[in-house]
Amino acid sequence: KRQSRKAERLKQFGVIPADGGHFSVDDFDIWMAVHPTNFEFTFAEPPEGIALYIALSGVMEVCMRDRQFVLPPGMLLAVPFSNLRLLRINAEHRHIGLAFSQNAIINQLTRLLEVPVMHELDLFAVCDVTSGAGAGLTTLARVLWDRFVADSEAAGSAHSTVRLFQAMMLIMLESFPHRYSVPPMQFTSPAVPKQIKRAIEYMTANIAASPNVVDIARAAGVSVRALQLAFQEFKSTTPSKYLRQMRLEGARKDLLAHPADDMSVSDVARRWGFTHMGRFSAFYREAFGELPSETW
């Protein structure tokens, strides 16, 4: 007989099944799921973040928004929590699970790409744990789990523990398909001048205030002309257009995330620094091929 319940609520994340114990540190969680009987775990309010399941024994059925499949032993699943609907755990199933917060993932990817990450990653992968990225992730997961089991207090306070979690994030971002997937050699761009990086950091921090190009240049430590030339050479656009695209992508993310009765188009526009609704709609349609009202 299959029992049904909601997955346990942990410190960092909303719903994670963890009958064999769990540990949390900063933006990361790791747990060992051991189920002697059949169980169903539902994800009524999934948190933001990426889940990694490494199946050790038994069978786990995974129900997502758009697909359903069985994860057998020796396979690994990486998926956003928001895409999960139900896990059916068969008796004697065991897996190591890890959770990476959305904030940690976005920060890591922003550093890799050297540009702001405005959209959901849509990362998804199912792979063998005996070769390639699957083998590397499984090895690191076992190392982390053994460290916590041996001395949870020491493992939780060690800087190397966070570095191991971060190494796993890098493997997933470089090896698994997602919205921002690019060849590994294109992840970093050392040739991008520091003044552009400083300008983008300033834009991100003041995005809703719509800073002008003079403010951006001052923050970057260069003249307006030098900033414009650098953006044209390395980003193929102007600082103003780059900032506008960042704001438009932020507005689109909000429109996709909130129901129409929760927040109006004008509320979203103002939140991202757009005060003229007509120009906002025109810019939005030019960027995304539809009006803001059609995104809902």
TrEMBL record:
- What is the protein name given in its UniProt record? HTH araC/xylS-type domain-containing protein
Q: Which UniProt keywords apply?
A: DNA-binding, Transcription, Transcription regulation
| GO terms assigned for molecular function | DNA-binding transcription factor activity; sequence-specific DNA binding
Give one Pfam family, short name only: HTH_18
Domain spans labelled HTH araC/xylS-type: 197-296
Q: InterPro entries recorded for this chain?
A: AraC-bd_2, Homeodomain-like_sf, HTH_AraC, HTH_AraC-typ_CS, PchR_regulatory_protein
- Please tell me whether the keyword Transmembrane is annotated for this protein: no
